[in-house]
Amino acid sequence: MNCTRLQKIMKLRAVRMVSTAPRATVANKSPVMVSPEHAVSVIQSGNRVFVHSIAAAPQALIRAMVGRSKELRNVEIMHLHTEGVAPYAQPEYHDSFYTNAIFIGSNVRASINEGRGDYTPVFLSEVPLLFRRGVLPIDVALLNVSPPDQHGFCSLGTSVDVSLAAMQTAKHVIAQINKFVPRTHGDGLIHISHIDSVVEVDEALPEAHARPPSAEQAAKFATISEHIAALIPNGACLQMGIGEIPNAVLAALKSHKNLGVHSEMFSDGLVPLLESGVVNNTKKTILPGRTVAGFVNGSRRLYDFVDDNPSISMMDMSFVNDTSIIRQNDNHVSINSAIEIDLTGQICADSIGTRIFSGVGGQMDFVRGAALSKGGKPIFAMTARTDKGDSKIVPFLRQGAGVTTTRAHVHYVVTEFGVVNLF
């Protein structure tokens, strides 16, 4: 075995050791079962509270926390984007809570753009470091987990992402035990002794359904998908961003063979390819035979599909989005979207002028990883114009817009009018 190969294996093992720590049982410790109201009584004014990500946001604990608004002041609520309601972001609770979003969803977008909350731009791969290095210490973590199995292990379900790191480093961990949380394999299995207090509340997870496109939009998406499908070879490893176009691309890959997935997330569009065997992960170098993701977001069908499915590995983002890991899968193809691109190739994907829309996320992690992969292709997919007819290809980005991906990192750009490779 050569030195380079050994170094890669040791680095991979080091990352895995970090992310599997909660598997060990804490001696002589078990959580206290209490009501949601009692559980959140540990939250104090000035605390930083982490909320479990995406569809896993624990609604019962959120409601109970907001119910203490008159007692609390300046509680920082930190999370990736979350589905469901976020009452703490409403104007009437401004003195009690403020949001610090690492990625912005629709339920907190107004509060942040109106100055009642903050947005922290950071690569998704580095968010776990914010917690593990103590840059942003977490006082209380609010989680939504599956019921424990016979050995006492719960699952973080649909979102392992950065939530595992928050849970590992929080001073106090509160979990909503919920039968609707799927039991997923991978890094998200945590022994119940790592939880301080639990509440039993069964609530269906929020579902995310793609908005049906208009006939004109559907035609554009289909053309873009055909262009991208032609760029993807059999045996490629895929990363898909969030949006209608990535889902359309997946639908265009039904005739491909031996595809793999190593992606920060996936949604319902991937399930048919997994069920048909188009995606079988046999050509991957990293975790062959398994679909790797940090979180899933979609319908109940998706959540049922990942439940106790050993072919799906839900992993820590410090692993999933690590460029040195991504590049080891040959022919890694990343498919991401953009709000606008200027004539020099600069990509803005998180803001519309000064208005923050989403976040940096893992775009750059996978753009760079795919570019360094043997045969890899980082692809940006976008319609040439907005629904209002404004061009997304502009001489210069709007004033105040952030550069999410630099001109030096952009390779393929695909619109309904064709493909260009800027590399």
How are the SSEs placed, and which strands pair?
Blueprint: H1 3-19, E1 32-33, H2 36-39, E2 48-51, H3 59-66, E3 75-79, E4 97-101, H4 109-113, E5 117-119, H5 127-132, E6 140-145, E7 153-155, H6 163-169, E8 172-177, E9 185-186, E10 189-191, E11 197-200, H7 215-231, E12 237-240, H8 244-251, E13 260-261, E14 265-266, H9 271-276, E15 291-293, E16 295-296, H10 300-306, E17 312-314, H11 317-320, H12 323-326, E18 332-337, E19 340-342, E20 347-348, E21 351-352, E22 355-356, H13 363-372, E23 377-381, E24 393-394, E25 412-415, E26 418-421
Parallel strand pairs: 1-11, 2-3, 2-6, 3-4, 4-5, 6-8, 8-11, 9-17, 12-13, 12-18, 14-16, 15-17, 18-23, 19-24, 23-25
Antiparallel strand pairs: 7-10, 19-20, 21-22, 25-26
Helix pairs in contact: 7-8
